[in-house]
Amino acid sequence: MSDSQTVSTAVANLYNTYPFPPEALLDEPPPGYNWRWNWLAAYNFCTGQKPQKQDIRILDAGCGTGVSTEYLVHLNPQASVVGIDLSSGALDIAKERCQRSGANRVEFHHLSLFDAEQLPGEFDLINCVGVLHHTADPITGIQALAKKLAPGGLMHIFVYGELGRWEIQLMQKAIALLQGDKKGDYRDGVQVGRKIFASLPENNRIVKYEKQRWSLENYKDEHFADMYVHPQEIDYNIETLFELIDASGLEFIGFSNPSFWDLERLLAKAPELIERAQELSDRQRYRLIELLDPEVSHYEFFLGRPPLIKADWSDDNAILAAIPELNPCIEGFPSQCFFNYDYQIVNLSVAEFEFMQKCDAHLTVAEILAGVELGLDGVRVLIKQQLILLIPA
User: Fold this and answer.
1) Strand bridging mode 80-85 / 106-110
2) Which of 11, 39, 250, 381 is the most exposed place for a label (fewest CB within 10 A)?
3) Helix (H) or strand (E) holding 59
4) Residue 381 confidence (pLDDT) above 70
5) Is the distance from CB of 37 to CB of 63 less than 8 angstroms?
6) pLDDT at site 209
7) Rounded to an integer, what distance in angstroms lies between the CA atom of residue 33 and that of residue 10?
8) CB of 161 within 8 A of CB of 297?
9) CA 110 → CA 89, 94, 107, distances in Å?
10) Is the pTM of this model over 0.85?
11) How far out from the chain centre does Cα 114 lie?
């Protein structure tokens, strides 16, 4: 058996023992949204405009118990969805989850992402969250997925970061040492880990980090096992992350949590240092940010396969001729105060509120502006905040 097969077997055994994620099954669509799983919102984030089609194909690569798959189906009513995973136990739960909530435009395959080429056709959106870092060869894995991405398609990736998981790595190694020959017995590993945490002093760094960051979810053994007794984990920093990205052959579009990667968040009191940082490359700035804020425990980002046309709304006439509609991932509208796509509170002016109320996907920006007291600069603010999507003329 090859190293890759050995790792895949061990990972499958973990998730057959502790199916993940362990979220409850519901007899209705899941609550809320994750905008990264909504084709309209994700495409707008990446290109600045509404996509031309919605009857797309989506691949959930490493779908586990189907939590993300279920959202992908319900948030994209015209899409067909395929979920793959190497754990048969997790797939059984995924099938039941989607059946119970009415997510009926989905098919599942017991398949490793290394074997994604066995799936027919290409996909417009590939979701691969929390998977590549658990493989023996993430580069081969991301390349296998990239081959299935259609031209103009998007891929959303989530992998672990080494700086924010340092304490986790220490606990993983401690549990493995104490398990000895029982390594691979995941139930024993969870018991050992629980006993370590119960025994360590309260002021211990590993204990404090666990209570501060992870304890709310790690009370479930499935979460605890996924974090502390996983048989395979590769953690990244900016430099190794971009080695992975470059190997994919796809275009790096950007991080899907861009506020974290804003240097002003850290150095606003030293504008001269921000000015110096302008001389750095984008990747060097990202590295600087993670060095200054080593809490980063993961990277989430979009890749794309060219041609991916990005909108340019610097032309006033282009905006005036475009047709606006509301971002589908907002909550609490119509109201001047609501949650945006990232669950941040937004407070609109009266004019902004009146404009958004008329964004019904029929009127142009020019037609709406004729009846409200909002200028083009105000519209650009709404575009920048991603509260509205624009359909080019």
Assistant:
1) parallel
2) 381
3) strand 57-61
4) yes
5) no
6) 95
7) 32
8) yes
9) 10, 11, 10
10) yes
11) 20
